[in-house]
Amino acid sequence: MTNALDVVSLRAGYGAINVLWDVSLTAETGKTTVIVGPNGAGKTTLLRAIMGLVPVTAGDIRVNGQSRKGAKTWDTVADGVVMIPEGRMIFPDMSVEDNLMMGAFPRACRAGWKRNKAMVFDFFPRLAERRDQIAGTLSGGEAQMLAIGRGLMEQPRVCLIDEPSLGLAPVVVDEIFRILGQLRADGMTIILVEQNTSRALKIADHVHLMQSGKVVLSERGDAVDLDRLHALYFAHDAA
Amino acid sequence: MIELTLQALFSGLLAGGYYATVAVGLALVFGAMRVINLAHGELVLLAAYIAYAAESRYGINPVMAIPIALVVVASASAIVYALLSRIEHDREINSLILTFGIGIIMTNGILTIWAADIHSTTNPWFQDSLVIADTLFAMNAEVAFFIGGLALMAGVYWWLNHSWQGRAVRALTSNRNAAMLMGVNPRQTEILSFMIAALLATFAGVAIYTGKTVFPSLGHVLTVKAFIITVLAGMGSIHGVLIGAIMIGVIESLTVTYLSASLQELAGMLLFLVVLFVSPSGLFGGRRALAR
């Protein structure tokens, strides 16, 4: 079976500033792959490069075996590869409901928007209560829920999730990880970038540790020793 | 005295309607692209001259000339867009220089083709007066295009709020990268907003030709007025544009009635400065909300 995602010797960055030096990793279909690493390791840049938001200078990105290098963001989305950015990237001037409707913008998702919206409201009843509220006035946790809900409206086959617990209260983090666990159980292919390693490892089938634009450790989720991971995490940071 | 004031308010309202039709197009393009099209007034003027050419040369009713003018204005808009989309660096400042230049070229093109004379429709129906409730006077053209303009703007407002593509324009305004992550192709959405701006410009141009007079230097006057109204409204708010346009229309009309016609432009500018002084982000500019 082909992998959902293969990243091969990827080099990418923003103009003169290179962020990813030589990143290779894979994500299996139907599994949850977790990418951890300190700030500035290039985790978010990797997701953005997969989505075509950051130019790739060398290497390759393959989704379900097909190269997506140089593909336009909207074409990648149309092929079912969805990125759920952090909660600050909702549409602040639009209502909660209009934000969700934007998730259904890809042509293949339009027909099912009502059913998908009902599903999102089931996942996050808070969003249903606030459906007419302007998204910019939501709390951090609600904004994150909206970002996830909006992503689910896109009917992802491969779902890239960027730091869903960033800056949120523990009780909200619990709720978000409960939903992620449920999506995983439903067999969605998830690639999760997370700083909260202990939480993320609990739902990980596979773990990659990134440091300064490179992958320095790849292990099965159940083989990871948290102490050793943390030691690596900080050792490279100091070096 | 009361009647005079009412008449001034009514005339101002009608003028505001056509200002708004010009300004909504500018605001729409600004919303989708973060670009101020300084040739927008010239596009409006182009539509007016196409209506003039159709009427004077072929005897076509200006209303019937709208489709022809639309084709010409939409083509011109497409050229403006094609040039704009080639800008790779510092799009905000370079687009100002580019569209300002296009405006100058268009003004002089119009001057070369149609000379500097002042034109207006020769069809008497448009300039016949219409009396409402025995007291308020207006020309048929003013009332017809006011109602048509409102309907058109209501259509644009509906489209922005309730259609897939319209929501995509607002999403692009709100957060460009996030919109792309929703599968929005910015170029497609931008060109669509340019075409809708062209439709509004065409309508406004024919409204001016039938209800007022046109001359080659009118283009930049319209651009400036539309720009002021857009800023007054708070960059990108559609209903704000309508209210701002009517405010400008009314204050100009009151100035003409009670002070002097030569102070008309000054009064609008003063209103603009006062509003910006009190609320620097415009009347409805707290958020960059298109159509909210």
UniProtKB/TrEMBL annotation, chain A:
<feature type="domain" description="ABC transporter">
    <location>
        <begin position="5"/>
        <end position="237"/>
    </location>
</feature>
<dbReference type="GO" id="GO:0016887">
    <property type="term" value="F:ATP hydrolysis activity"/>
</dbReference>
<protein>
    <submittedName>
        <fullName>ABC transporter ATP-binding protein</fullName>
    </submittedName>
</protein>
<dbReference type="InterPro" id="IPR003593">
    <property type="entry name" value="AAA+_ATPase"/>
</dbReference>
<dbReference type="GO" id="GO:0005524">
    <property type="term" value="F:ATP binding"/>
</dbReference>
<dbReference type="GO" id="GO:0015807">
    <property type="term" value="P:L-amino acid transport"/>
</dbReference>
<dbReference type="GO" id="GO:0015658">
    <property type="term" value="F:branched-chain amino acid transmembrane transporter activity"/>
</dbReference>
<dbReference type="InterPro" id="IPR003439">
    <property type="entry name" value="ABC_transporter-like_ATP-bd"/>
</dbReference>
<keyword id="KW-0067">ATP-binding</keyword>
<keyword id="KW-0813">Transport</keyword>
<keyword id="KW-0547">Nucleotide-binding</keyword>
<dbReference type="InterPro" id="IPR027417">
    <property type="entry name" value="P-loop_NTPase"/>
</dbReference>
<dbReference type="InterPro" id="IPR017871">
    <property type="entry name" value="ABC_transporter-like_CS"/>
</dbReference>
<dbReference type="Pfam" id="PF00005">
    <property type="entry name" value="ABC_tran"/>
</dbReference>
<keyword id="KW-0029">Amino-acid transport</keyword>
<comment type="similarity">
    <text>Belongs to the ABC transporter superfamily.</text>
</comment>
<dbReference type="InterPro" id="IPR052156">
    <property type="entry name" value="BCAA_Transport_ATP-bd_LivF"/>
</dbReference>
TrEMBL record, chain B:
<feature type="transmembrane region" description="Helical">
    <location>
        <begin position="64"/>
        <end position="84"/>
    </location>
</feature>
<feature type="transmembrane region" description="Helical">
    <location>
        <begin position="96"/>
        <end position="116"/>
    </location>
</feature>
<keyword id="KW-1133">Transmembrane helix</keyword>
<dbReference type="GO" id="GO:0005886">
    <property type="term" value="C:plasma membrane"/>
</dbReference>
<protein>
    <submittedName>
        <fullName>Branched-chain amino acid ABC transporter permease</fullName>
    </submittedName>
</protein>
<dbReference type="InterPro" id="IPR052157">
    <property type="entry name" value="BCAA_transport_permease"/>
</dbReference>
<comment type="similarity">
    <text>Belongs to the binding-protein-dependent transport system permease family. LivHM subfamily.</text>
</comment>
<feature type="transmembrane region" description="Helical">
    <location>
        <begin position="266"/>
        <end position="286"/>
    </location>
</feature>
<keyword id="KW-1003">Cell membrane</keyword>
<keyword id="KW-0813">Transport</keyword>
<feature type="transmembrane region" description="Helical">
    <location>
        <begin position="191"/>
        <end position="209"/>
    </location>
</feature>
<dbReference type="GO" id="GO:0006865">
    <property type="term" value="P:amino acid transport"/>
</dbReference>
<dbReference type="Pfam" id="PF02653">
    <property type="entry name" value="BPD_transp_2"/>
</dbReference>
<feature type="transmembrane region" description="Helical">
    <location>
        <begin position="6"/>
        <end position="28"/>
    </location>
</feature>
<dbReference type="GO" id="GO:0022857">
    <property type="term" value="F:transmembrane transporter activity"/>
</dbReference>
<feature type="transmembrane region" description="Helical">
    <location>
        <begin position="136"/>
        <end position="160"/>
    </location>
</feature>
<keyword id="KW-0472">Membrane</keyword>
<keyword id="KW-0029">Amino-acid transport</keyword>
<dbReference type="InterPro" id="IPR001851">
    <property type="entry name" value="ABC_transp_permease"/>
</dbReference>
<keyword id="KW-0812">Transmembrane</keyword>
